[in-house]
TrEMBL record:
InterPro entries documented for this protein: CoA-transferase_III_domain (IPR050483), CoA-Trfase_fam_III (IPR003673), CoA-Trfase_III_dom3_sf (IPR044855), CoA-Trfase_III_dom_1_sf (IPR023606)
Xref: Pfam families: CoA_transf_3 (PF02515)
Top-level taxon of origin: Bacteria
GO molecular function, one term: CoA-transferase activity
Protein name: Crotonobetainyl-CoA:carnitine CoA-transferase CaiB-like acyl-CoA transferase
Entry keyword set: Transferase
Presence of keyword Transferase: yes
Organism in which the protein naturally occurs: Roseospira goensis
Length: 403
């Protein structure tokens, strides 16, 4: 397991991002960019902060483990944007920033005088990331949205579950948030590149449901072409066989993926059943006899413990992997060799083990400097050093509940 240490210069050094988003999608975008050098000023409501601080397992400090992980590398500033003095300070910070990130319902920032027109007038090169459930326009724009709703509306939930069962949560309930955060990071980087060349800022508009819909392979062109409504496929897939999850002798599971006839021939060889190629050598033959083929494979995996199945398949160049629990991941030598887990200090909590930085860059790698900050930990420093707000004025702002 790696331990966080001082990093070399990073590609986004010098970029300042004003992060007024809450929960996961927008903050995940800024977390990624912060790992690669961007200064992230996280703006939170005085007294309560980001609700994500209370989502998940609480720590000794009160902030959740999820928050401490996803608010990594950020500076926390408390600012009540609903008050004129808070909005004024936000505008001043936006004028000195390269990016503003927000995920309120469309129109909220405008009601506070902090919409795109207001901020871009102060900073024409500003990039504004706006994350919402349904986007900034369209008939559903005003509806509240969370990842679970995005999974449903975007088409993913309908595909998750067993064929004869109800739709289920597709893995993490926050998957759509994290996907949207990734698309947000890509959008911000492209917009920054444009602003660097032209001096023109722009809005990056991310809808949670769109991020989900974008990754559902061929369901859109297939429906448009022949009217097929794809449904729940359980552990398999309509496009390949055997391509699913198989239980082993010790009760653990493996995933096996034979996406071509060549891969199936290799599996048949590994199973010491080369005769299977005669009857099931083509994808069409295997799909037509899916239950039989999957049953044959499971009958074989049940004869060995999981690790042996993985070993035999790997030796035969058959794609196979263990279905890991988090305990398996912590014990996996490949995760260790790749440095996928890193120890980071969190003020008031101690050492935490977090997922490490992605992507991996060979010359300018990202880095986790610290876990999520305490609420308002950087308010005075940011207001003083970025905006020049004197101590007596900060005292007044604090007394008025603005910070």
């Amino acid at each position: 397991m790696e331990t966080a240490s001082p990093a070399a210069p990073r590609p986004l050094d010098g970029i300042r991002i004003l992060d007024a988003a809450s929960f996961i999608a927008g903050p995940f975008t800024t977390a990624i960019l912060g790992e690669f050098g961007a200064e992230i000023i996280k703006v939170e409501q005085p007294g309560t902060g980001d609700p994500f601080r209370r989502f998940g397992t609480a720590t000794e400090r009160g902030d959740s483990l999820a928050f401490l992980s996803e608010a990594r590398n950020k500076r926390s500033v408390t600012l009540d944007l609903r008050k004129p003095a808070g909005a004024r300070l936000f505008k001043a910070l936006a004028a000195k920033s390269h990016v503003v990130c927000e995920n309120f319902r469309p129109g909220t920032m405008e009601r506070w005088g902090l919409g795109w027109d207001d901020l871009s007038a102060l900073n024409p090169a500003l990039v504004m990331l706006r994350v919402s459930g349904y986007g900034q326009d369209g008939p559903y724009a005003d509806r509240p949205g969370f990842a679970r709703i995005a999974h449903a509306v975007g088409g993913l939930t309908h595909l998750a579950g067993m064929p004869d069962g109800p739709p289920v949560t597709p893995g993490s309930t926050s998957l759509g948030d994290y996907m949207s955060g990734l698309f947000g990071a890509v959008g911000v980087l492209m917009a920054l590149r444009h602003a660097e060349r032209t001096g023109e800022g722009q809005v990056v508009d991310i809808a949670l449901y769109e991020s989900v819909f974008r990754v559902l392979d061929e369901i859109a062109p297939r429906y448009a072409r022949d009217g097929t409504v794809r449904g729940r496929e359980g552990a398999g897939t309509l496009n390949a066989c055997p391509h699913g999850h198989f239980v082993c002798q010790d009760g653990a599971w493996v995933a096996i993926a034979c996406t071509s006839d060549k891969m199936f021939a290799r599996l048949a060889e590994v199973m010491a059943r080369p005769d299977l190629v005669r009857d099931y050598g083509t994808t069409a033959q295997r799909l037509a006899a899916r239950e039989t083929v999957d049953g044959l494979v499971e009958g074989w995996t049940r004869t060995m413990p999981r690790d042996r199945v993985v070993e035999v398949c790997t030796a035969g160049h058959v794609p196979c992997g263990p279905i890991n629990t988090i305990a398996d991941i912590f014990a996996d030598p490949h995760f260790a060799a790749r440095g996928n887990l890193v120890e980071v200090l969190a003020e008031g909590v101690g050492s935490l083990t977090l997922p490490n930085v992605l992507p991996r860059l060979s010359r300018t790698p990202g880095h986790i400097d610290h876990a999520g900050p305490a609420l308002g930990a950087d308010t005075d420093a940011v207001l003083e050093h970025v905006l020049g707000v004197a101590a007596d004025e900060r005292a007044t702002l604090r007394a008025d509940g603005v910070i």
